[in-house]
Amino acid sequence: MTVVTNIDDLKQIYRRRAPKMFYDYAESGSWTEQTFRENVSDFEKIYFRQRVAVDMVNRSTKTQMIGQDVAMPVALAPVGLTGMQCADGEIKAARAAEKFGVPFTLSTMSICSIEDVAENTTQPFWFQVYTLKDDDFMRRLFERARAANCSAIVITVDLQLMGQRHKDLKNGLSAPPKLTLKSMADMMTKIHWGLGMLGTKRRFFGNIVGHAHGVKDPASLGSWTTEAFDQSLDWKRIAKFREMWGGKVIIKGILDPEDAKMAAKIGADAIIVSNHGGRQLDGALSSIRALQPILDAVGDKIEVHLDSGIRSGQDVLKAVAMGAKGTYIGRAFTYGLGAMGEAGVTKALEIIHKELDMTMALCGHRDITEVSPDILLLPEDFAGDWA
Ligand SMILES: Cc1cc2nc3c(=O)[nH]c(=O)nc-3n(C[C@H](O)[C@H](O)[C@H](O)COP(=O)(O)O)c2cc1C
């Protein structure tokens, strides 16, 4: 039995336990996967300044994201099909997050519905929406999120069309999985996963099937998704969604200072500097490399968060020291969930917290709200100067 000491250990267990189709779905980026890889490798280019003989007793990683108290500046990112990585995955991840004291964000493309998650948790969670053409459906989603007591909406703006991941096409990804000889042979070796799936009714897209016009069963979902995303999206429409919701709004998928300014202008509460975990525009900058110019442009006007590539508490500290007020983990919690269910998500959060806390201490700080860029050695080309 592996002694789990880091996020990669969870990934190795997850790889053994989840059907290949779903492991590949999470562990891939679009096209050549350059951005997917650089999201991680660019973090390694930033160094810490070690300090000694500084009192490190009584440390705190507590802070706030959009005015909400958090045990550390880390939220769970919206991840579609989480309930296929492990039965009832969204409920399990949300429970782990609430016990740890960090926000959980439910994806529109989740398996467990908004209502399922609300019924099985006690704290308000955040709900992520895509920018869809159908106003009625959007309005109903917002109503359902309000009824479920969601405390913020995350509007994902970087998916007007979907990036191509070669593995998903080759594997014939679907939820529930299509039963082919190949997929059945693979699933028969994933006994724990299979038993979990047999024991739950939640195997379809819970927020969509039976709620979107014309999507009465899982078979009609495919055509709906290709039709539903709004390629004519503009900032007026994003502002309209903000009005429709009427509460706190986080805009997810910003990589450019000009777009960050637009998000601030329409009155969003926060932005997430994100390239969707390298799943959309391959060849775009890693999020950590895109951060500084965005902070320079809007850091005093709007809360700036970051995701994509975070695999450790050290990565969280690098982003926060640069000026991000919060970070999100997508794959890091998915590995934990696929490895060990709710306990695995808790484990992922514990690992990240410990790494964050210890690194902060060794850099001479006791309070996460007081760390500054002083603790970092940042490569010059992270400042955003391009020819
Ligand atoms: C398997 C998977 C599914 C995702 N589904 C969604 C989604 O439904 N909505 C969304 O806004 N982002 C989605 N994302 C992107 C994440 O919210 C987040 O931006 C990304 O995972 C961050 O990168 P990381 O995985 O390196 O932490 C997904 C990411 C993964 C890996």
Secondary-structure content class? alpha/beta
- How much of the sequence lies in strands comes to 5-15%
Largest sheet: 8 strands, parallel
Q: What proportion of the residues is helical, as a percent range?
A: 40-55%
For the termini, the CA-CA separation is: 51 Å
Tell me the strand order in the biggest sheet: 4-11-10-9-8-7-6-5
Query: Topology as H/E string?
Result: HHHEEEEHHEHEHEHHHHHEHEHEHEHE
Radius of gyration, Cα only, in angstroms?
20 Å
The count of DSSP E runs of length 2 or more, i.e. the number of strands, is 12
**Globular, elongated, flat, extended or rod-shaped: what is the shape?**
globular
Q: Provide the list of bound ligands, each named once.
A: flavin mononucleotide
What are the low-pLDDT stretches, counting only 5+ consecutive residues below 50? none
DSSP helical segment count: 16
Average of pLDDT = 95
